[in-house]
Amino acid sequence: MTDSFASPPPEKRRPRFVRIPLRYILPNLVTLLGLCLGLTSIRFAFEGRFDWAVYAIIAAAVLDGLDGRIARALKSTSRFGAELDSLADFVDFGVAPAMLLYFWSLHDIKSAGWLAALVYAVACSLRLARFNVMIDEPNKPAWSAQFFTGMPSPAGAIVVMLPIYLHLSFVGLPQSRAFVPYEIAYVLLIAFLMVSRIPHFSGKQVGRIPREFLVLAMFGAVAGILLLATFTMEVLLVASIAYLAMIPLAVRRHAALTRADAQAAKAAPDAATPPETPA
């Protein structure tokens, strides 16, 4: 006879703390470090240390390029990491450059300058949202990985600070209220390039270097790092102008590949149709 009042078997308790491998944490730590640099850039701008504010944004851009590569190398990509990266990018490359430019010169024309800063920050948020949506877009041609749709937010953050480079580099452009309307127009132009559908080179193929050019590439990378560390504003000035000059080349290359795809699609049905046999 079974005891009807017997207690049920004890349930297996779940562990209180779930152990997460370090390889899942490391990319997110890099992202959070970049977020801290973006916020620190705003502090430096508020304190008038504009050169250090620029350095913080550049360092955040470097970390932004590393966190995704670290996650893929460690096979620890996650939806959480992608969302965290987007939020950090908005602060680092949207809010921080906008505040830096406002404290730098745009505040001389308060309403118009603040409006330009807002437009840039909003454009950065829209650019990031579109990028997240287009990741899952099906039926993209293989060559589309060579291009970004619109200026990417890290590049936008670096290029939009061109007026600061012109002042802090060897050019030595003086700060004057007379230049502020042109700087506002320039900030609005970069905001337009970010939300537009103008193609930009993605640079994703840069990491694939033929073995015979490995030593030359390593020498170039070291020389570039040394130049950036020694002549930071001058290198950023040249890099920004070069990036803007490459936009027409990217548009031309994208148009050529689009035409080639259209011609291939047009020729495919003709090739699939068998020739008629004589009666």
CATH superfamily: CDP-alcohol phosphotransferase transmembrane (TM) domain
Q: Specify the CATH architecture.
A: Up-down Bundle
The level 1 CATH classification is Mainly Alpha
Q: What would the average pLDDT be, to the nearest integer? A: 85
Write down the oligomeric state: single chain
Residues in helix, %: 55-70%
- Give the SSE order as H and E letters: HHHHEHHHEHH
**How many discrete structural domains?**
1
Under CATH, the topology can be stated as: Four Helix Bundle (Hemerythrin (Met), subunit A)
Largest sheet: 2 strands, antiparallel
Structure write-up:
The protein has 279 residues and is mainly alpha-helical. The protein has a single domain (22-135, 143-255), classed as Up-down Bundle (Four Helix Bundle (Hemerythrin (Met), subunit A)), CATH 1.20.120. It is built from 9 helices and 2 strands. The protein has helices spanning 22-46, 50-73, 79-104, 110-134, 153-160, 162-168, 180-195, 214-230, 232-272; strands at 147-149, 199-201. The protein has a two-stranded antiparallel ribbon with strand order 1-2. Helix 4 (110-134) packs parallel to helix 7 and helix 6 runs antiparallel to helix 9. The chain is globular, with a radius of gyration of 25 Å. The mean pLDDT is 85.
